[in-house]
## 1
Amino acid sequence: MPPVIFRKGLDLKHEVAGVLAESYHSALVGTIKANDYRHRSGRLTVFLAREFGFCYGVDRAVDYAYQTRRRFPERRVFLTGEIIHNPHVNDQLRAQGIRFLSDPGEDDALTSDDVVVLPAFGVTVEELQRLSAISCTLVDTTCGSVLNVWKNVSRYAREGYTSVIHGKFWHEETRATASQATQVSGGHYLVVLDRAEAGLVCDYIRETTTPDPGRRRAFLDHFERASSPGFDPDVHLARIGCANQTTMLSTESLEVGEQFRTAMRDRYGEAEAATRFRSFDTICSATQDRQDAVVKLLAEEPVELMLVIGGYNSSNTCNLARICAEHVRTYHVAGPEGLLSATEIRHRSVAEKQEIVSSGWLPESGEVRVGLTSGASTPDNLVEIVVRKLEAFTLHA
């Protein structure tokens, strides 16, 4: 018997609106937006990016999860894993009695009486088939932008193109996207993390006219965890289609696509490359808008430092921090708790990609001009707490 799948909510939006507003919204943030995205308090001025925080897909996913809990009060409700990459939001869902299949032992006794919420990142084809075989009731919150990438990857596979995915091979979204390629007979994928890895692949494409078993082995070893089963670079790089994890740095995704376009042209010539290479811009519009907004803020406002709020495992948040760090001193904090005091801050180092504590992060006297943004999985109430902490830290001097 096929499972029941809810893909357009559970008709309880109005019933959960109050608790969602109480848990995640902020009157102060609304006021800052109305005041031209600026907030002044004493010697502090906060410049808020004009696009930040919860995107439509995240807002919808959290909304559906709360509706699910309300719709099925007597049944066990599970998430396959984090619904989004924000520890505060996931803790709030746990407080609602929603359990996580990714927790030890939770997946062992799943039954057809249980309800499983699929996250905004989506799940792999194999995971969906497994859950369907159990006949769990499913609530699918997969983001529309992710579904758009899946369509392109599936089409590539059907038409004989290998999907080259700019993303993190360990990320839930990229794993789900890659699985769309292998559901088609003969479909293959390769995941490249950045321009450097794309360069390795492009060099291989250019040099395949001269077989080299050692080079082939080195290639397969490097991409062992980032390629489809049975991937053969001498065969499966002859026709490629580019895609990406939706939350990657958009400028880098576009550059990666151009790297591959150039490599295919160098290898096969302009005319033939046109039939061997495909590319579609699959960066999420919300991701693009947030990246554009911080670039604009940094170009127009005299900020001394940037605060970027969001989970350390949130790809879109990390990329916002990368953009900011190229222009100004930047602190990526997981949440308000990272602001320890007026002199110390606990944050993720953009360069070293590890959590550290830094001192002397706020000026002790004079004006303080702080730029502020947050990742697409960060609710407004956390932004408010950060602003209130900044007010307290700059109250004197």
## 2
Amino acid sequence: MEVVYERCAGLDVHKESTTACVLWALPKGKKKQEKRRFATFTQDLLAMADWLRDSGVTHGAIESTGVYWKPVWNILEGQFEILLVNAQHIKAVPGRQTDQKDSARIADLLQHGLLRGSFVPPTPVRELRDLTRYRVALAQECNRIANRVQKVLEDANIKLASVDTDSLGAPGRAVPDAIIQDVQGAVARKRAELRPALEGRVTEHHRFLLNQLMTHLRFTEERMDDVEKEIARRMQPYREDVERLCSIPGVERVTAWGLL
């Protein structure tokens, strides 16, 4: 096979250690390799980068193992030409299959140009992805808390969801808040059809749970609001793109962020 890179490195990344293999191409089809194992603390990864640079490495490949590749990538990016390789792609390449995560095999495949790198976006885009994904997680947590609130209300035979589709919107929240404060008829006066739905059997246990859940819900919503403000700030360079996407029917600001 044709040698594409005279001197390259393969990195086998794990949670607590990274094994790096430097591979040299020698005359007459021979090759030389050297392996070293490093811990995953920052100082150890920096030492690994120094060793690779001193060894004359210009190109390297990392197998995308969970999230453990990210700190390694962050340190090596900009110093070397690095490929992030999908583990399934390495398995699909013919050859020795005894240890698919072996750094020497990764280096050998890279040296002969048999690896295809995955797209790794620039740092600002990666950070925006982290924020948008965190926002999704917070939104999902809000939904889970809201479902728990509904279960407590149902346990107390408060049928709010039966008469109000947005039972935890701004008006609907007055019900659990009133129950927490033990305010009789605070919301029932708003609409006559709510009165039967609110004639439940509320105990101190229900009030305690509702108080905990509503506090948790408001805290999570505040965190989501903070994250949205940070995303909006970082999206300023893409403001025109967001506006164009929002002109599409059904596409709102949050959806546009995810698309970008």
